[in-house]
């Protein structure tokens, strides 16, 4: 299961059933879970933990030092959950001390070719990164979000759960959960109705989220919007998540008008 031409440090921890292809390099601080498949010419270094049944394609680079001028070779980590697929030329850096010292990618994610996930990012579960999508440092992406090809996310920005970005979107503010964004710079364009229907959300819930979007994203007065959706918060947990995300947003959220992309 391990090609004789692979270079594996004896201190690396490789569990049973792992496949490692030719010319792949595995460093001393790496641990790889059961059943994970790693192709040829992959480099995995640093303190990097990879879960079970992952699939990592050729020329990926995982756990390398962060691209941060303040980094001084401190001990930091990268964690990747189970059943995550990482395609060709993906780069994922480990964390920095000032950002929590860990970059974390959850379970059941699909990370397509040429994606970059920078230091200290926190990515949830069942997330899709389309080709060449990139996160700058300290970004957060919620569960089941979908980032379209060539999406760019500014450092410290958050993308909420079930959110969707179209091809070439450039996010410089937070994108609330259940919402869609498009453009450079991106603007919010509505609720991710198709994605939510596919995931079994009721029409009633989607309509409640649409009302919330109109008041909090399309509306001009935040406090009036929060007051207007207060009854929905009690009835719909999804609206409660939406409202909590907006309240907790340090950078402000994307709006429907690019000129009003701040709070």
Short summary of the structure?
The chain is an alpha/beta fold.
Overall outline:
elongated
CATH superfamily of the largest domain: Hexapeptide repeat proteins
The number of helical runs is 4
| Fraction of residues in β-strands | 25-35%
CATH topology of the largest domain: UDP N-Acetylglucosamine Acyltransferase, domain 1
Query: How many domain modules?
Result: 2
Low-confidence stretches: none
Supply the CATH architecture of the largest domain: 3 Solenoid
- The whole-angstrom Rg is 20 Å
Tell me the helix content.
Answer: 10-25%
Overall mean pLDDT score? 96
Quick one: how many beta strands? Answer: 27
| Separation of the first and last Cα atoms | 54 Å
Q: How are the strands of the largest sheet arranged?
A: 3-6-9-12-15-18-21-24-26-27
* Major pleated sheet: 10 strands, mixed
The first-level CATH class of the largest domain is given as: Mainly Beta
Helical/strand content category: alpha/beta
Spell out the key features of this protein:
263 residues, alpha/beta, UDP N-Acetylglucosamine Acyltransferase, domain 1, Udp N-acetylglucosamine O-acyltransferase, Domain 2, 2 domains, 9-stranded parallel sheet, 27 strands, 27% strand
Write the layout of secondary structure elements.
Blueprint: E1 7-8, E2 13-14, E3 19-20, E4 25-26, E5 30-32, E6 37-38, E7 43-44, E8 47-50, E9 55-56, E10 61-64, E11 77-80, E12 85-86, E13 91-93, E14 102-105, E15 110-111, E16 116-117, E17 122-123, E18 128-129, E19 134-135, E20 140-141, E21 146-147, E22 152-153, E23 158-159, E24 164-165, E25 170-171, E26 179-183, E27 186-191, H1 193-198, H2 203-216, H3 222-235, H4 237-247
Parallel strand pairs: 1-4, 2-5, 3-6, 4-7, 5-8, 6-9, 7-10, 8-11, 9-12, 10-13, 11-14, 12-15, 13-16, 14-17, 15-18, 16-19, 17-20, 18-21, 19-22, 20-23, 21-24, 22-25, 24-26
Antiparallel strand pairs: 26-27
Helix pairs in contact: 2-3, 2-4, 3-4
């Amino acid at each position: 299961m391990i090609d004789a031409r692979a270079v594996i440090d004896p201190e690396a921890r490789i569990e049973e059933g792992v496949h490692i292809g030719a010319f792949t390099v595995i460093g001393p601080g790496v641990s790889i879970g059961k059943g994970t498949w790693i192709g040829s010419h992959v480099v995995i270094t640093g303190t990097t933990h990879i879960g079970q049944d992952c699939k990592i394609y050729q020329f990926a680079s995982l756990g390398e030092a962060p691209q941060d001028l303040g980094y001084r070779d401190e001990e930091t980590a990268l964690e990747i959950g189970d059943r995550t697929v990482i395609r060709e030329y993906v780069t994922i850096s480990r964390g920095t001390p000032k950002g929590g010292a860990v970059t974390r990618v959850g379970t059941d994610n699909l990370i397509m070719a040429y994606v970059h996930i920078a230091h200290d990012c926190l990515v949830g579960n069942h997330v899709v990164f389309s080709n060449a999508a990139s996160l700058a440092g300290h970004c957060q992406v919620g569960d089941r979000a979908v980032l379209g090809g060539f999406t760019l996310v500014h450092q410290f920005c958050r993308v909420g759960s079930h959110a969707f970005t179209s091809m070439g979107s450039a996010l410089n503010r937070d994108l609330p959960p259940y919402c869609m964004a498009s453009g450079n710079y991106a603007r919010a364009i509505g609720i991710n109705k198709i994605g939510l229907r596919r995931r079994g959300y009721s029409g009633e819930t989607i309509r409640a989220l649409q009302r919330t979007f109109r008041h909090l994203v399309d509306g001009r007065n935040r406090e009036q919007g929060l007051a207007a959706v207060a009854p929905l918060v009690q009835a719909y947990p999804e609206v409660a998540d939406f409202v909590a995300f907006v309240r907790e947003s340090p950078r402000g959220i994307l709006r429907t008008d690019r000129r009003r992309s701040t709070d």
